[in-house]
């Protein structure tokens, strides 16, 4: 590793069919991968060639045709990752599933199954589902408040982890002579009766190869950080500056220690959208071309979603108005408000910036410049790696793997090979003991 750090920079690929830039899909080289398995399989192979730790699929529970093409139609993540598991060997496979709208039994079963199918490469992005419009597709009444969503998530994750521990690792003795398939005293029935969930158990899946699939948390509000510090191994974030990134990471590591955990076992991966050109001028022109393709109406819808307020009635050439705290995405709204104030942005400038990568940091430049930007954050303690969000697929991602990764490797920042068989091993994380069968 580099002289400045003794830990490898972790790399995740945030795969979004239409690309991460809202107008990325309009670029002549862009191929639309939302439901194109062949294309996605090729992208996954490229990620593995670049020794990426994981491939991540976000998910939502509504279809919205008006903001970003990727939100209109996409394959259900567990189904897609199961298909990708067959053509990859080492890549971690991370799927999003909502703690607000999915029963913990379903979650535990789905991720245990993916972990078995992939030989221990599953990760669960546990999200609370921010958007109230999701509730219209389920039959549970009103969308719970921000605090309630996190209280549900706390209990849901505990139940899921309890279900993953239903069987001791050696429970399935399959003893033909004795006629014993499973040792009855190596099975735990959870009998969970909580505030939100009643789940008897045991799970109808043996203990996953990783013990527990990796848990990812992507909310950065205080309840989100507390949840991540207690339960998660990876945290996806969207900070814009190194100062913000470092403050967040330091705070989270402190919360992890308070929760009795090793802070190195919680890794912060901010999203970064690299716009790569052969020269600085080429990268700048590509960024301008992408920005020029933005539909202002879609851009303002994306900003409304991120802020949790409709700002379309305000003067677009004036400053961002003072808005009350949103119940939707608290941390993202705060980051964008800070950005607008710091950079003195008009509403129009802000929504163009947000449309770029939905509020994530955009870095444009040569491969060398992109590598510099990542190194600065990583060495400066702002992250444990990055969630790479190409503006469009596949060529911009191929450029990242072909041109940026070798520079990072030469600098000793990323590892040049997979070091284990499971995602947990590749991330240098221990396999958790079974809480009911600690032996
Ligand atoms: C990189 C990243 C990916 C995310 N992916 C999803 C997703 O797939 N589905 C979802 O409902 N929310 C997703 N979120 C949103 C968060 O889970 C969370 O709901 C949001 O940040 C608001 O939580 P907060 O108020 O705690 O910040 C993502 C956030 C980030 C930073």
UniProtKB/TrEMBL annotation:
Q: Which PANTHER family match?
A: ALKANESULFONATE MONOOXYGENASE-RELATED, C2H2 FINGER DOMAIN TRANSCRIPTION FACTOR (EUROFUNG)-RELATED
Indicate yes or no for the key word Oxidoreductase. Answer: yes
Segments crossing the lipid bilayer: none
For this protein, the record's InterPro entries field holds:
Diverse_substr_monoxygenases (IPR051260), Luciferase-like_dom (IPR011251), Luciferase-like_sf (IPR036661), NTA_MOA (IPR016215)
Keywords, comma-separated and alphabetical: Flavoprotein, FMN, Monooxygenase, Oxidoreductase
Q: What is this protein called?
A: LLM class flavin-dependent oxidoreductase
Species source reads Neoroseomonas terrae
Q: Which family does it belong to?
A: Belongs to the NtaA/SnaA/DszA monooxygenase family.
Q: Which residues form the Luciferase-like domain?
A: 21-382
Q: Quote the Pfam families the UniProt record gives.
A: Bac_luciferase
């Amino acid at each position: 590793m580099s002289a400045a750090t003794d830990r490898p920079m972790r790399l995740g690929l945030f795969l979004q069919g239409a690309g991460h830039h809202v107008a990325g899909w309009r670029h002549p080289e862009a191929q639309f991968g939302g439901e194109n398995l062949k294309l996605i399989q090729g992208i996954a192979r490229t990620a593995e060639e670049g020794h990426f730790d994981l491939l991540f699929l976000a998910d939502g529970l509504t279809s919205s045709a008006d903001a970003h093409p990727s939100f209109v139609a996409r394959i259900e993540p567990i189904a897609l990752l199961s298909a990708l598991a067959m053509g990859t060997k080492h890549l971690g496979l991370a799927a999003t599933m909502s703690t607000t709208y999915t029963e913990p039994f379903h979650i535990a079963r789905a991720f245990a199954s993916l972990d078995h199918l992939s030989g221990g490469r599953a990760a669960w992005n546990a999200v609370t589902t921010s958007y109230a419009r999701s509730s219209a597709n389920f039959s549970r009444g009103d969308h719970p408040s921000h605090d309630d969503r996190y209280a549900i998530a706390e209990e849901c994750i505990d139940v899921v982890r309890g279900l993953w521990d239903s069987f001791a690792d050696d429970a399935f003795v399959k003893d033909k002579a004795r006629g014993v398939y499973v040792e009855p005293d190596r099975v735990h029935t959870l009998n969970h009766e909580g505030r939100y969930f009643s789940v008897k158990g045991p799970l109808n899946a043996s203990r996953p190869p990783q013990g527990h699939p990796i848990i990812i948390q992507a909310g950065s509000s205080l309840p989100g950080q507390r949840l991540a510090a207690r339960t998660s191994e990876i945290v996806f974030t969207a900070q814009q500056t190194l100062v913000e990134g470092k403050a967040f990471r330091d705070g989270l590591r402190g919360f992890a220690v308070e929760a009795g955990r090793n802070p190195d076992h919680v890794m912060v991966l901010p999203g970064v959208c690299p716009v790569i050109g052969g020269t600085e001028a080429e990268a700048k022109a590509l960024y301008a071309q992408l920005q020029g393709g933005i539909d202002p109406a879609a851009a303002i819808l994306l900003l409304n979603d991120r802020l949790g307020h409709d700002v379309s009635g305000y003067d677009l050439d004036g400053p961002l108005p003072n808005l009350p705290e949103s119940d939707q995405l608290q941390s993202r709204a705060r980051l964008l408000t800070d950005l607008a104030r710091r950079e003195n942005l008009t509403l129009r400038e802000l929504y163009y910036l947000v449309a770029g990568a939905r509020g994530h940091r955009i870095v444009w430049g040569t491969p060398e410049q992109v590598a510099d930007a990542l190194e600065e954050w990583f060495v400066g303690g702002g992250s444990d790696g990055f969630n790479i969000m190409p503006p469009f697929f596949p060529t911009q991602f191929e450029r990242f793997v072909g041109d940026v990764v070798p520079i990072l490797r030469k600098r000793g920042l990323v590892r040049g090979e997979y070091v284990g068989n499971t995602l947990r091993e590749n991330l240098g994380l221990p396999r958790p003991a079974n809480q009911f069968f600690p032996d």
